[in-house]
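Duplicate of #3305? Posting structure anyway:
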């Protein structure tokens, strides 16, 4: 008998990512956040993974979700949006969660304004994937398979 252990992947999206599709499509593409969720859930069906996909414009809500992930999630994929470049609170929460974290961005933040080159949350991440649009999320899920196996 095979013992299949399902992994719960918490995918968190920060401020303004609910506007994808109409938000600066030349930078972020035309896919909506719902499209990205569908792509990721579809990809997760190739793996023994369940995707819990959420978005909030509130830093505090994101912190609470990360706190709750400890003990319930196997890993976190996080696009913190602009909080990436400002939030010590998110960094502290991620360091307390003691879970593998992959930081993702749709755009290549290093090709953009200088303030986007600094991430407060990278020190808590196993790795960072940016610049591949919706595919950044799928690449993060792929990377997690090795990390969680
Ligand atoms: C982003 C990049 C951030 O700099 C920006 O504030 C976002 C989106 C991205 O996915 O490319 O909101 O995280």
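Output from current build:
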């Amino acid at each position: 008998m095979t013992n299949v252990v399902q992994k719960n992947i918490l995918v968190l999206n920060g401020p303004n990512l609910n506007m994808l599709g109409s938000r600066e499509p030349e930078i972020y593409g035309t896919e909506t956040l719902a499209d990205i969720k569908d792509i990721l859930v579809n990809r997760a069906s190739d793996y023994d993974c369940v995707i819990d996909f959420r978005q909030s414009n509130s830093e505090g809500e994101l912190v609470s979700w990360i706190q709750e992930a400890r003990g319930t999630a196997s890993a976190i994929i996080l696009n913190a949006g602009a909080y990436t470049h400002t939030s010590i609170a998110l960094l502290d929460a991620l360091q307390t969660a003691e879970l593998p974290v992959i930081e993702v961005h749709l755009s290549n933040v290093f090709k953009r304004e200088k303030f986007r080159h600094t991430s407060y949350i990278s020190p808590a991440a196993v790795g960072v994937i940016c610049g591949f649009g919706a595919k950044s999320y799928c690449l993060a899920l792929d990377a997690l398979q090795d990390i969680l196996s």
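Confirmed duplicate; merging threads. Residues 16, 79, 81-82, 84, 105-107, 109, 116 surround DQA (CB under 6 Å). The CA atoms of residues 1 and 48 lie 16 Å apart.
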